[in-house]
Design brief:
Elements: E1 10-13, E2 16-19, H1 23-33, E3 40-42, H2 49-62, E4 64-69, H3 74-88, E5 91-96, E6 99-103
Parallel strand pairs: 3-4
Antiparallel strand pairs: 1-2, 4-6, 5-6
């Protein structure tokens, strides 16, 4: 692959498959995610099934997205970030304040180069 993104291996986490990225892959994805705006917001209702479904749809369409998490407590935000990654099978690319960057390869992408 031209930019070195292989998707890394998958690690077992809380019964769900979560992507693991190398430092080089994470760095490249962080650079790509920098200019993105959050496409999904987790509000007062927390991580509901509809929020997870919307994150899943956004990942299927874009591979790399940002999610804004509205929880005020830092520990609660960290728990929500881990839960989002576990429920969507996505890799955490970045976490800055209330913004989480996620990456998951498209299921139909196969061995194609990511754009």
């Amino acid at each position: 692959m031209a930019d070195g993104l292989t998707g890394g291996g998958r690690a077992e986490y809380n019964g769900a498959m979560v992507l693991s990225l190398t430092n080089r892959e994470r760095t490249r994805l962080k650079a790509r995610a920098h200019a993105l705006e959050p496409v999904v917001q987790v509000g007062q209702g927390g991580l509901t099934a509809s929020v997870v479904a919307e994150i899943d749809r956004a990942l299927a369409a874009h591979e790399l997205i940002k999610v804004r998490i509205g929880a005020a407590d830092r520990a609660e935000r960290a728990d929500l970030c881990e839960a989002i990654c576990a429920r969507t099978g996505a890799a955490e690319v970045l976490r800055v304040g209330k913004v989480l960057g996620l990456w998951r390869p498209r299921p139909d992408a196969g061995d194609e180069e990511p754009k």
